[in-house]
Amino acid sequence: MAFCLSGCNFISYETKPIANQEVIEKITAKDPEDPRFKEFLKIQGFKEDSLPIKEWGLNELMLCALFFNPRLEIAKKEWDVAKIQEMIAPIKAPSSVGFESGRQTTGVKENSRDAFGLSLTTLFETADKAKIREERARNQSLIKRLELRKLAWDIKTDLTLNYLRYHQLLLNLQIIRSEIKLQNEILNMLKKRKSLGLSSSIDSNFNQIELNKNIQKLNEEQYQLNETKSKLASILGISAEKLNTMKIANINMDQSIDIFSKTLDDETKQQDVINLGLFNRIDLRIALAKYAVSESQLKLNVANQYPDIRFSPAYIFDYGSSKWLLGVTSLIPTVEKNKNLVEEAKKLRDIESLQVEKIQTSIINELAKLRDNYINAKDMVRKDTEDLSAANELENSIESKFNQGEIDRIELTQQKLITMQYKRRFYTNKITLMKIGFDFEALLQEPLNTNKNNEK
How far is it, in rounded angstroms, from Cα 284 to Cα 363? Predict the structure, then answer.
């Protein structure tokens, strides 16, 4: 009978084996030129005439990651599972239907020799257990939704870090190549001097060593650039070959630093920044949702002290006699076990409460550290600006003397090399300053300026 009642709702099992070749094809098929991705970009506000994207800035790359990154696909599926659990939670235990029949071979002929019985057993839950389960499932679903949002921020943070590193490495390679060119010029001039007996081999040997160091540095930077590009492709969820076809936009360091400084240099906004960290962080809301789950679990353990009741109405035809029955059964909970379960739930709730405090303390300390780092980085950039300006002035002065024939070319080239080294340090510290601004956003999990544009 139960089979007949539920048979129309049966779902057949379908296999879904993992085929390695199909997975590989799926990865290689992910393409920024995909029409589905273009439709996604239109939903995000891109106009038809701006597609396909010609230059990929940080915002465009983030949209690419949101569409293709497999970690986000997994998180979305986990949230879907949690939403299904939310629908399942309030459903009570299934009722049961029973049918019994029998026949006796002996007995009075006037009486029926047949017997059968029909029974129904249904559960009545006490203490609002279904509502509590639903409340717990709602909070668990909320956790998965917040974890999806946090994952998106984690991906953005990772993408930003590697995006900045990519540009820093490109800049380093450009400057180091210029340094190597100047070092080669100096070395050639020293070798000519040595051949004329105007200098010793010490000078040329020293410059050869410095040149070799820079060549080694160039190779290391190129290796790190390739590694960073591989990380970027992984974050975006596309193949390295597809990334190589995308033109990465230049970054406007001055614009980004100015945008961050409007908030970070304004003393009246510092408490707002702290409050943003204390109340806006997604992982803090996750901790609060976990606290709510532990609170629901405590309620459920308390409710489980009250036994559920099973009602079993039945009809029996007993060899000519009709009988109606009503059975009531209940499992008596173990008092000691329930007591310990309630105590355990209280401890778990206390742990989740302390987790909230732990996160907030960490946020305050991290904000203070970033604040100090920001001030130090600004001072370093200011000093580097002065040093680079002085080096440029000195180079111009030496070049003027060279043009007047007061000094030779080697002194001018050496000063150009020194200026180039100051330039490399200046841009390294400037990118560090800009990165600290993005570190603030990563910590707050909120843009410091919603209208900012990090592209070229």
Answer: 10
Contact call for residues 303 and 126 (beta carbons, < 8 A): yes
Mind listing the pLDDT tens digit for each residue in 69-94?
999 999 999 999 999 888 888 887 77
pLDDT at position 454 over 70: no
The rounded distance, in Å, linking the Cα atoms of 345 and 361 is: 25
Q: What is the residue extent of each domain of the chain?
A: 55-93+127-306+335-444
Distance CA 82, CA 255 (A): 42
Stated as kind and residue range, the H or E segment containing 89 is none
Other Cβ atoms less than 10 A from the Cβ of 419: the count is 20
Could you give the CA distance from residue 115 to residue 322 in angstroms, rounded to a whole number? 10
Strand locations in 257-403 (E): 309-318, 321-330
Most trustworthy range by pLDDT among 12-16, 56-60, 204-208, 326-330: 56-60
* CB-count exposure of residue 328 (10 Å: 0-12, 13-18, 19+): exposed
Cβ contacts of residue 378 below 8 Å, gap of 6+? 433
Assign 3-state DSSP to the chain and report helix, strand, coil percentages, each to 5: 70, 10, 20
User: Could you tell me how many residues make up the chain?
Assistant: 456
| Order of strands, sheet of 96-103, starting from the edge strand that comes earlier in the sequence | 96-103, 114-124, 309-318, 321-330
Specify whether the CB–CB gap between 382 and 417 falls below 8 A.
no
For 29-32, the CB contacts below 8 A with 24+ separation are 30/68, 30/237, 30/238, 30/239, 30/242, 31/238, 31/242, 32/64, 32/238, 32/242, 32/246
Contact of 454 with 57, CB cutoff 8 Å: yes
Q: Are 65 and 257 in contact (CB under 8 A)?
A: no
Residue 422 Cα distances to 374, 385, 428, angstroms: 21, 9, 10
- 3-state class (DSSP) for residue 438: helix
Using alpha carbons only, what angle is made at residue 366 by residues 159 and 169, rounded to the nearest 5 degrees? 35
CATH of the domain spanning 55-93+127-306+335-444: 1.20.1600.10
